[in-house]
């Protein structure tokens, strides 16, 4: 009887007498069974578009901000403070209005206080705004004081008896007004000399348009030394239409329109 072929790995029957056939050695690897599903390889990629969960311990991807965004604490958060510093610098050049100067100083101080966090909030611009604001405001005050002194100096109300002056049209008898007054020394050439000062009475104020009579205002001792054909006396007021109580300055000038060369009296 024909024996079927031994299974691979099965030992041949022993020819020795009394020898028993040992049990077959189980194969170390079983052949695949036909028809059994093969192991599926791992799928590459993500076929359904579902988000893949990162493995535990794997490094996480940093969150990407969209264009124009900024990370917390990044440079983008400094921009409002820098804008404030720029605004303070611009307003500092307008500090002559004082309101703009005060606003510029306040904004600059706010920027400097915010700079204590160690970030650049526009410290240099804020310091420049402070310096410029202070300088512009001081310069404005100086100009106002000088202008006020100049106007005060030019005022007829501030003339004093015995002063010598130069003024445009002062020696022109046909002129209704004079130019700026310049107080000068009486030892040199000058247009006129103040021989009396007073305030207008109601009668003098009402007749001011026809000229102010200074004869009763000038000291009689001085009037005695003046030749009326050589010296004329004009009553000058600050306003062309003076009122009662306004100041009047009586100024002596030469009748021929030339300048005086010495002090009268």
Would you kindly provide a written description of the structure presented here, covering whatever features stand out?
With 265 residues, the protein is α+β, with helices and mostly antiparallel strands. Among the domains are: 77-153; 161-254, no CATH class. Helix content is 27%, strand content 12%. It has five helices and five strands. A five-stranded antiparallel beta sheet has the order 2-1-3-5-4, with no helix packed on it. Helix 1 packs parallel to helix 3 (123-154). The termini are far apart.
Helix and strand topology:
Blueprint: H1 79-92, H2 99-114, H3 123-154, E1 164-167, E2 181-184, E3 192-199, H4 202-206, H5 220-223, E4 231-237, E5 247-254
Antiparallel strand pairs: 1-2, 1-3, 3-5, 4-5
Helix pairs in contact: 1-2, 1-3, 2-3
Keywords: Membrane, Transmembrane, Transmembrane helix
Biased composition (Pro residues): 1-11, 20-30
Region (Disordered): 1-78
Index terms:
alpha+beta, 5-stranded antiparallel beta sheet, 12% strand, elongated
Mean pLDDT: 77
Amino-to-carboxy terminus distance: 178 Å
Strand content: 5-15%
What is the number of strand segments? 5
Which series of helices and strands comes N to C?
HHHEEEHHEE
Give helix % range: 25-40%
Quaternary structure state of the chains depicted: single chain
Outline the biggest β-sheet.
5 strands, antiparallel
Distinct helical segment count = 5
Radius of gyration from the CA trace? 56 Å
**Unreliable stretches:** 66-71
